[in-house]
Sequence to fold (224 residues):
Amino acid sequence: MDVLLVEDDAILAKDLAAELRECGHQAQIVGDGRLALQALVDRKFDAVILDRMLPELDGLSVLNRMRAEGMTLPVIMLTALGKSADKVEGLEQGADDYVVKPVDAAELNARLMAVSRGRQWNMPENDTISAGDITVSPLRHRAWYKGAPVVLPKVEFQLLAELVRNADRVLTRAMLYERVWDYDFEPKSNIADMYIRRLRLKLMEAGCDDPIVTVRGIGYMLRA
Fold:
C-alpha cells in the first residue's frame, strides 16, 4: 500500500516509515496538517496514518477537510490521546481506526490491511442514492441537498445514508443500531435519538424542511 504518514515527530516518523517499508508498504512522510492536505492533492495514496496533534492544522481538522472534499481513503489516527472521549471524537469525525501510541509495526500493518479490506467490502454498486432533494454518495462520503453540499461527520452521514436507502420506510431503533453502529443489541442510552437530532439540525441548516418523521415508540422514517 502507498501510505501517507502525517507525523510531526521526525524520529518517530522515520522509524514508522522504515517499519512500514519492511511490511511491504511505501510511506511518504509529512510533518504538518497543511502539507498533508497538499500531498493528498498532489498524489494518490491508499491510506493515511494521521497524528492528531499537528502544527499548522491539527489532525481532526485535516480529517474533516478530507471528508468534506470527498476523500474516502482509509484513515488511521495515531495519537498519544488515548481517553475514550478522544477515540469517540476521532471515529465520529470520519477516522476508520484510532490507535494510541506506542504501536508496533505488526499491529499497525494489521490495522492498515483491515481498514483497506473494510473499504473494499463496503463499496456500493452505485455511486449515489437519492430520496427527494437529498442525495448521498457512500463511496465518497458526501451528501447534498438540492445539489449543495452538506458536510456531516461519519456517524451522521452513515445514519443519513441508511435513511435515504430506506426512504418512506420506517426503520426501528434496533435496525439503526445494527446497521449504523454495528450493535447486535439496543443500548439503554438514547444515542440514536441524539444523532437524529444532530442530523435534523444539519439538514435544516442547509435549508431543508425537516424530512425525518418520528414514529412514536418505533423509530424513524425519511420522507422522499
Summary: The chain is about 40% helix and 20% strand. The chain has a mean pLDDT of 87.
